[in-house]
Amino acid sequence: MAGRSPVVLNQIGALVGERIAAHPSRPTVLRHEDGRPPWDIPDGVEVLLTRPLIGWDAAPAARPAGWGRGLRWIQSASTGMDVYPPWLLDGAPLVTCARGVSAVPIAEYAMAAVLAFEKRLDAVRLRGPEDWRREVLGGLSGRRLGLAGFGAIGRAVAERARAFGMSVGAVRRSDWAGSVSGVEPFDRLEDLIAASDHLVLALPLTAATRGVVGADLLARAKPGLHLVNVARGALVDQGALLAAIEAGRIAGATLDVTEPEPLPAGHPFYRHPAIRLTPHLSWSAPDVEPRLAERILANLDAYARGAPLRDVVNVQAGY
Questions:
Q1: d(C-alpha 280, C-alpha 261), whole Å
Q2: 214 DSSP 8-state letter
Q3: What is the spatial order of strands in the sheet that 225-229 belongs to?
Q4: What's the rounded Cα separation, in Å, for the pair 34 and 54?
Q5: For residue 319, which of 150, 180, 204, 310 is within the disulfide window of CB 3.0 to 4.6 Å?
Q6: 7-10 β-sheet, strand order
Q7: pLDDT per residue rounded down to tens, the chain (319 residues)
């Protein structure tokens, strides 16, 4: 059971630190020192609040000597755990993630991408009377949106897509426990991509999903498919995607994530007219950090009572 006043190392940010410090368990909150490797944990720390993009990508391949000594709980600010070294999960203390915290802004981004593709507002924007012309815009009603992944993000996208009159199909890695109103379950991604006008990738990146969108899968796509990736760049074979677009098998792609991030200068994705790139920001919204703080506080409540925590990472599955 947790101690009455745990020592917490906060690597997430000031707002979270302030909220945690005010918790009734009266934790001692240590601030992460700039430039210090995130795996270099001071002695006595019981709870680690951490996030990607603070140096975990440079973590050593082997577990550092003494890593995890005294740690009882690690809370990640991200949903995906692929950003961390394998040894963080291997034999680690309890690890929880921020599953669902950014589901709504990510779903809004996905629907904005679908609308931008269908309505082509950038392309039909007038810059003078010489641009005046009549065109037929696309629509969402009656179109099929496919979801590769049906966790919190997939459910949030489905809810919004149905409001636009779209039909929704989905594949998920776990079994379908029962029917979901307005969502058609698919057993295979190959069948889903063949039936979809828009395919949204919302899968975790694991050894099983890396490169899942490759040449073979893209060859099965419904003509005119629009691919939206809000998950991880490594889900997609980027060379195969470019070839499929150039060959006319895929109409376009909206990519909030790539492999690597950012792509190197001169990469063809930057200037391709059928590809829209954004800098991994689909998760962002004004209320995300406060929502994350509330999630961590709820887990801290449970931790202080010795009760089960929410959103515990499945070490075997990797998410």
A1: 8
A2: -
A3: 183-185, 167-171, 144-148, 198-201, 225-229, 250-255, 275-277
A4: 9
A5: 204
A6: 28-31, 7-10, 47-50, 73-76, 94-96
A7: 444 589 999 999 999 999 999 999 999 999 999 889 999 999 999 999 999 989 999 999 999 998 988 999 999 999 999 999 999 988 768 999 999 999 999 999 999 999 999 999 989 999 999 999 989 999 999 999 999 999 999 999 999 999 999 999 999 987 777 778 899 999 999 999 999 999 999 999 999 999 999 999 999 999 999 999 999 999 999 999 999 999 999 999 999 999 999 999 999 999 999 999 999 999 999 999 999 999 999 999 999 999 999 999 998 888 8
Contact assessment for residue 70 and residue 44, using Cβ atoms and an 8 Å cutoff:
yes
HSE, side-chain direction, 13 A CA sphere, residue 22: 8
Provide the greatest CA pair distance for the chain. 72
- Between CA 257 and CA 240 the distance in angstroms is 16
Around 98, how many Cα atoms within 13 Å sit in the side-chain half-sphere? Answer: 25
User: Among all residues, which ones are annotated catalytic?
Assistant: 232, 280
Report d(CA 47, CA 27) in Å as an integer.
10
Give the span between the Cα atoms of 74 and 220, in whole angstroms: 41
> Cα–Cα distances in Å, from 51 out to 74, 261, 297?
10, 16, 16
- Residue pair 213/186 in contact by the 8 Å Cβ criterion: no
Query: What length does the chain have?
Result: 319
Q: Three-state DSSP class for 145?
A: strand
- Sketch out the chain's domains with CATH numbers: 7-100+286-305 (3.40.50.720), 103-277 (3.40.50.720)
**Which residues in 53-91 are b (16+ Cβ under 10 Å) and which e?**
ebebeebeeebeeebbeebbbbbbbbbbbbbbbebbbee
